[in-house]
Amino acid sequence: MKILIISDTHGKLDNFFKVLEIVEPIDLLVHCGDVEGQESEIEALSGTPCHMVSGNNDFFSFLDREKEFTIGGKHVFLTHGHYYHVSMGPERIWEEAYSRGAQIVMYGHTHKPVVEERGAVTLVNPGSLSYPRQNGRRPSYILMELENGKASYDIRYL
Questions:
Q1: What is the CATH number of domain 2-157?
Q2: Cα gap 101→108, rounded to integer Å
Q3: Alpha carbon of 29 to those of 70, 84, 93, 130, 145: distances in Å?
Q4: Tens of pLDDT, residues 12-64
Q5: What is the percent of the chain with per-residue pLDDT over 90, rounded to a whole number?
Q6: Were 32 and a residue from 7, 61, 78, 136 both cysteine, which residue would form a disulfide, CB within 3.0 to 4.6 Å?
């Protein structure tokens, strides 16, 4: 199973088009928030099931603040991250993931890509396709692959 994880597109879809051309076909799209009104377009363009949450810039969105779902037998907790103050560090979001029994927590907000494991929980942040903040400031996303119950994560840059 091939899962595309993106975040913080902020209403700009040019880089999303580029990413889709590179990674298609995908089985699932996950957007970690700050969609800014492009929910329908993103879902239609992906041509696949989508999980999306609202971010701190999604003022009039009807998207959920948080979601929990299962991918390939893995319990996923999806949130934008701002309610857990992820810009100050990942401690609160780790605690929340453990309290929910999540094996994977996906979030955005920091605009910096991260894949980190602590015990039974993997923390995944794809960075931003529109306004990257990490060194080099290249738009980023994560391609997750699930095979035989094992997940792998590849941070990719445009």
A1: 3.60.21.10
A2: 20
A3: 13, 23, 21, 17, 12
A4: 999 999 999 999 999 999 999 999 999 999 999 999 999 999 999 999 999 99
A5: 96
A6: 7
